[in-house]
Specification:
By secondary structure, the protein is α/β, with parallel strands linked by helices. The protein contains seven helices and nine strands, in the order E-H-E-E-E-H-E-E-H-E-H-E-H-H-E-H. The chain has one domain: 3-Layer(aba) Sandwich (Rossmann fold). The protein is about 45% helix and about 20% strand. Helix 1 packs across helix 7 and helix 5 runs antiparallel to helix 6. Bound molecules: adenosine-5'-diphosphate (ADP) and guanosine-5'-monophosphate. The site of adenosine-5'-diphosphate (ADP) has 15 residues, from helix 1, helix 5 and helix 7.
Length: about 190
């Protein structure tokens, strides 16, 4: 059965790094859902690769046309998951990997209760998170502060997830995550 493997983490938690590895190891079985957003591209991000970058007006039209399986306002920008991408993957018997925020994870749980499995990637501490955000070097001080404030709120949602993986040492966190996903994708009916 196709699954929705939902990964949430505070910004800087290591989602992107871990998701890239999952996509490599489960190529052909797991497809990344590329979200649509109104935020500006960061660093070397390209339209259609990391995100579909659209205007606020375009996004709002998408909401009206029910093009999103879920959408949310995150850090002041819109982000949404395409309904068509999910449906196409399901038709092809593939599973979908989604890197979305805690609001989106909750919406998908309600919309796809049988398919959805939610994994929260937690940083070892907020101090680690701050240092990783600074080290990444892609965000302004104001953005970092906003993301840290949101991280405190997001961490409170962790207990509601199906699984929590602490991203302390990257290889250990990945091994744990890979085992969870491997188990999910080989389940017959569950
Ligand atoms: P997110 O997608 O959740 O915002 P990233 O995957 O971009 O997070 O990771 C943020 C930064 O932290 C990146 O520079 C990444 O290389 C680094 N990072 C990720 N996991 C770890 C880890 N376990 N230990 C140290 N640095 C990490
Ligand atoms: P960033 O701007 O750092 O790429 O992402 C900011 C936050 O938006 C992250 O928590 C990310 O998981 C979340 N996000 C990305 N795409 C979506 C989406 O389609 N829906 C929701 N609800 N959140 C998303």
């Amino acid at each position: 059965m196709s699954k929705l493997v939902v990964i949430s983490a505070p910004s800087g938690g290591g989602k992107t790094t871990l998701c890239e590895r999952l996509l490599r190891d489960f190529a052909g079985k797991l497809v990344l859902s590329i979200s649509t957003t109104t935020r500006a591209p960061r660093g070397r991000e390209q339209n259609g690769v990391e995100y579909h970058f659209v205007s606020k007006a375009e996004f709002e039209k998408g909401i009206q046309d029910h093009r999103f399986a879920e959408w949310a306002l995150v850090h002041g920008n819109y982000y949404g998951t395409s309904r068509t991408v999910i449906e196409k993957c399901f038709e092809q018997g593939k599973s979908v990997l989604l890197d979305i925020d805690v609001q989106g994870a909750e919406s998908l749980r309600k919309a796809y209760p049988r398919e959805c499995f939610r994994i929260f990637i937690a940083p070892p501490s907020l101090a680690h998170l701050e240092s990783r955000l600074r080290h990444r070097g892609t965000d302004s001080e104001e953005t970092i502060q906003k993301r840290l404030k949101n991280a405190r709120d997001e961490m409170e949602h962790a207990p509601r997830f199906d699984r929590i993986v602490v991203n302390d040492q990257l290889d250990h966190a990945y091994a744990e995550l890979k085992e969870v996903v491997s188990h999910l994708l080989t389940e017959k009916n569950g």
